[in-house]
Specification:
8-stranded parallel barrel; alpha/beta; 16% strand; globular; 12 helices; 39% helix; 3-stranded antiparallel sheet; 363 residues
């Protein structure tokens, strides 16, 4: 019965304005109207990364559950981990509407939301209310648009959520907060990551848990900057790199929609984001676990991310068009790929085609 309801729900959601559909999806999850997987993992898909046990490598990317409303529902659907945010210290409404545009034929979305969220305090209260529930729940942290000290906002996120986060993702790659991507420049990156690592050390010295720190980068980094950026991230011993956020480029998009400001996600982003993933894998020598994001809407595209160098993957726009059953299809495809390759674990497929993807144009 629930499966039939899901088939009806998807076209209904696509008929609504994007933000109304998003809110309806969140409300359904809050009410428990979603499929459930009794076993989210398998021996072939389980991995231990950053000191955490991931039952499978599939997560929903930040931006879906901005205010930590439904992390447990995402885990129940069959995700190996959930990520909430992006969260900023103070609540902020984001950019004026309209700010989300579907490109249905392209299976894509352009958004210029601008870190709309209810702030640290409200999200922390929700995460603290999870109690002793299991599962990996990461917190994606950002800076307020009007912050005078953006680095301080990131440090505040680390300190605020240390008791409830399984890991942190440092979002310096959204195109919708003016100047935010400047933090990816090697010198600025040095200052930001250095201060975050120092803050983490202070927390550990107080006897608190040491949480993994992942840095999320853009797919629009200039070719010549990839090496220096990766060099700085390796030097600071970050725990992981997420590749990538939305793009300001418009591959395969023309007309009025191409002129809309904001970040493009979905199928047109896949090649660019995966080529960037392959380059980052090569630049880091495979020494840092990578999260592959951008254009995953099938088992085949998920596997391509793994082969390009990812150990984990995250999906968002693909779910808008494919619905929650996509999670199960991706899991099944990855398990079948392990069987076909005659290997015990999905990690053995990671990076096997990184060289191929690293040679592809960033387009």
């Amino acid at each position: 019965m629930l499966g039939g309801l899901m088939k009806i729900a998807q076209p209904v959601l696509l008929s609504l304005p994007p933000e109304d559909a998003h809110e309806m999806a969140l409300r359904a999850l809050e009410l428990g109207i979603h499929p459930r997987q009794a076993h989210a993992g398998s021996r072939a898909l389980h991995q231990k990364l950053f000191g955490l046990d991931f039952p499978n490598p599939i997560g929903v990317a930040a931006g879906f559950d901005k205010d930590a409303r439904v992390p447990d529902a995402l885990l129940e659907i069959g995700c190996g981990f959930a990520e909430v945010g992006t969260l900023t210290p103070k609540p902020q409404p984001g950019n004026p509407s309209p700010r989300i545009f579907r490109l249905v034929e392209k299976r894509a979305v352009i958004n210029r939301l601008g870190f709309n969220n209810g702030g640290h305090e409200a999200a922390h209260r929700r995460l603290a209310g999870r109690g002793r529930r299991g599962g990996i729940v990461g917190v994606n942290i950002g800076a307020n648009k009007d912050a005078s000290d953006r680095v301080g906002d990131y440090v505040s996120g680390l300190e605020t959520f240390n008791d409830v986060a399984s890991y942190f993702t440092v979002n310096i790659s959204s195109p919708n907060t003016p100047g935010l991507r400047d933090l990816q420049a090697p010198e600025a990156l040095d200052e930001l990551v250095g201060k975050l690592m120092a803050a983490r050390l202070r927390l550990v010295e107080k006897g608190l848990a040491k949480r993994p720190i992942i840095v999320k980068i853009a797919p629009d980094i200039a070719e010549e900057d990839i090496g220096p950026i990766c060099e700085r991230l390796v030097a600071h011993s970050v725990d992981g790199i997420a590749v990538s956020n939305t793009t300001i480029s418009r591959p395969g998009i023309s007309g009025e929609m191409a002129r809309q400001a904001g970040g493009l996600s979905g199928r047109p982003l896949f090649n660019r984001a995966t080529a960037m993933l392959g380059r980052v894998h090569q630049a880091t020598g495979g020494a840092i676990p990578l999260i592959g994001i951008g254009g995953i809407d099938s088992g085949e595209t998920a596997l391509a991310k793994i082969e390009a160098g990812a150990r984990l993957i995250q999906i968002y726009t693909g779910l808008i068009y494919e619905g929650w059953p996509l999670i199960g299809r991706v899991r099944a495809h990855l398990e079948a790929a392990c069987q076909e390759a005659g290997i015990d674990n999905i990690a053995q497929l990671s990076g096997r085609r990184a060289a191929h993807w690293a040679e592809q144009p960033l387009s």
